[in-house]
Amino acid sequence: MNIVVLGPGAVGSLWAYKLNLAGHNVSVYSSQNLPNLSLELDEQPALSFVNQSIELLTKADVLLVTVKAWQVEAAIEPLIKHIDERCIVVFMHNGMGAVDTVAPLLDRNPLVLATTTHGAYKPSREKVLHTGHGNTLLGGYNSKGSRCDFLAEVFNHALANCQWTENINLALWNKLAINCAINPLTAIEQCRNGDLAKEHYQEKLNQIIDEVCQVMRAEKVPITREQLEETVTQVIKATAENYSSMHQDVFYQRKTEIDFITGYLLVSAKRHNISAPTNQALYDNIKTIENSWTQS
Ligand code: KPL
Fold first, then answer.
1. Of 9, 180, 192, 197, whose CB is crowded by the most CB atoms within 10 A?
2. DSSP 154
């Protein structure tokens, strides 16, 4: 297939490399104005990817959008006129809500949402490390996208384990819950995910999970308090050595995904008249940190 990866950051680079190894024609679309990007995965040899080719974008069967949630609109808008209406657009990022903004601009295309727990880290521009083996779920966003279940096989062949789900909303809410629990707290405390297993953080985590659970149930996401707590505990354990993406964003003073993680939760909480003071405080805290950089 002809595949373009829009936003070859850590996760995008991992997929670009793996899809290329699986035999697909992969090019990238990065904000760097270079004709080609070279990429090494772990200890494997460098591969060269054509960058910013409008011709390849026009021919794309799949456009995999891996920019951060807050970058989706600005990244995709200038490219829309070059995207064929048969091209399947797959969105893979943390958080929820970003696709709702761009979907009306792509209403003729099959749209697919993806969520992944693969860990990837880019220590330099030309190198990507696959730091944790995870799972990927794909599911339709619109009716055309819902008919693209074959794509799970294509992605699975490149980087297992990938499955199709008829209820991507459930998968996205579960990931959102994990990110609400782990990301802001590790970013504020500047600690590793595993540190949240300490006694000291249990009360706060319980409050976050209580609020998230109430909102998920109001959104008709079938989940129990026990299941949610178990999922969060498992992820904290499985990614104990990791620094969360929001931890890294705060550390490097980059804009975070808070509006699409805790922010999305708070909008939904408000719609359902649910009070979420713990998540609100975490949201405000991250916003204060972000604002302090623009003022200094
Ligand atoms: O998705 C993550 C992130 O850091 O954004 C988790 C699952 C918390 C792993 O670090």
1. 180
2. H
Question: Is residue 193 within 6 Å of ligand 1 at its C-beta?
Answer: yes
Instruction: Answer yes or no: is the C-beta of 94 below 6 A from any ligand 1 atom.
Output: yes
Centre of ligand 1 to C-alpha 69, Å, is: 14
Both tokens of 215, joined, read 């909102």
Residue 171 to residue 272: CA distance in whole angstroms: 21
Over residues 269-273, mean pLDDT:
98
- Do residues 103 and 111 make contact, with C-beta atoms less than 8 angstroms apart? yes
CATH architecture for residues 2-165: 3-Layer(aba) Sandwich (3.40)
What residues are labeled active site?
A: 175
Domain ranges of the chain: 2-165, 170-295
- Report pLDDT for 296: 60
| Predicted model pTM | 0.95
Q: Long-range CB contacts (< 8 A, 24+ apart) of 78-83?
A: 79/6, 79/29, 80/105, 80/106, 82/54, 82/57, 82/58, 83/57, 83/58, 83/109
* Closest ligand 1 atom number to CA of residue 179: 8
Residue 241 CA, ligand 1 centroid: distance in Å: 11
Domain 170-295 homologous superfamily, CATH: N-(1-d-carboxylethyl)-l-norvaline Dehydrogenase; domain 2 (1.10.1040.10)
| Shortest-distance Cα residue to atom 10 of ligand 1 | 244
Strand order in the sheet with 47-50: 47-50, 36-41, 127-132, 119-124
Give the whole-angstrom CA distance, residue 285 versus residue 185. 10
- Stretch 96-107: mean pLDDT: 97
